[in-house]
Automatic annotation (TrEMBL):
Family to which the UniProt record says this protein belongs: Belongs to the proteasome subunit S14 family.
Name of the protein this chain belongs to: Proteasome 26S subunit
Recorded superkingdom: Eukaryota
One GO term describing the cellular component: nucleus
Keywords: Proteasome
Domain PCI: 74-243
InterPro entries tied to this protein: 26S_Psome_Rpn12, CSN8_PSD8_EIF3K, PCI_dom
Amino acid sequence: MSQLKTLYEELIRAFKQEPADLKKCTLVLNKLKIGLIEAGLLLPQGDVNLGDLVVAREILEIGAYVSIRSRDVPSFDRYFSQLQTFYTDYSESLPPSKREYPIRGLNLIRLLTQNRIADFHTTLESLDADVIAENKYISHPVNLERWLMEGSYSKVWNAREQAPAEEYKFFVDSLMGTIRNEIASCEEAAYESLPIRDAASLLFFTTQSDLLIFAQKRGWQVDISAGTINFKRKGEEKMEIPKQRLITASLTYARELEQIV
């Protein structure tokens, strides 16, 4: 365990820097995970030293935070899956972790961003009712889910500034990206064009430059001088219905039916 202890202390120093040295943390975490596997602490079974388990749990928790700060969601998924053993099987044996509920809350928001609503509710059901109601790290994603179901997108937008931890903002931003695309699809179906200011307001953009980048990705035509956005994509043409030809064909069909009768 001496080598693990040295690496652990190195990880703590890198993580506590302002800002955290994410590259160094990732390198050290990779070495630590190998060490945890060799020591039988990554997936602990049987009689294991509780002090070693506390250290292993903290390593994995730091790994979860580093993953979010590095915008690596699959890595966060893996760390959270590994932490489940510590949070469930050893919940009564180990002292509480101050990072447990922040990480559980991050996992709940992750499920929302992936539109895994059933998994969200299943995960929520595993928590005590008082935790859901009173813990700010859990109530935040619970409120987000309710607002999403209500279509209260402005509340989701405002929730970014009410995030209980900085890491939560990453997932709220991801949610807003999904919401913007849904609103954009509705705008395309409902309008031929909109004033740039109105489009920015509907899509929760605070700057025109962000709106223009989004418009370019959607293939919208922007007229800066007129201050409008045209939702009809370039090269898109209205399909002309051949009315005269349809009428002629219908009359011919009707006459042929009369002759048959």
